[in-house]
Amino acid sequence: MRPIGVFDSGVGGLTVAKELIRQLPYEDIVYFGDIARVPYGIKSKETVIRFSIENILFLLKAQVKLICVACNTVSSVALPVIKNHFKVPIVGVINPGAREAVYATQNKRVGVIGTRGTIASRAYENEIKQLDPQVKVMALSCPLFVPFVEEGWVEGEVVLRVAREYLKPLKDSRVDTVILGCTHYPILKPVIRQVLGENVTLIDSAKQVAMEVKKILAQEGPLNKSRHSKHEFYVSDNPEWFSSLAQRFLGQPVRNVKKVK
Amino acid sequence: MRPIGVFDSGVGGLTVAKELIRQLPYEDIVYFGDIARVPYGIKSKETVIRFSIENILFLLKAQVKLICVACNTVSSVALPVIKNHFKVPIVGVINPGAREAVYATQNKRVGVIGTRGTIASRAYENEIKQLDPQVKVMALSCPLFVPFVEEGWVEGEVVLRVAREYLKPLKDSRVDTVILGCTHYPILKPVIRQVLGENVTLIDSAKQVAMEVKKILAQEGPLNKSRHSKHEFYVSDNPEWFSSLAQRFLGQPVRNVKKVK
Question: Which residues of B are catalytic?
Answer without folding.
Answer: 71, 182
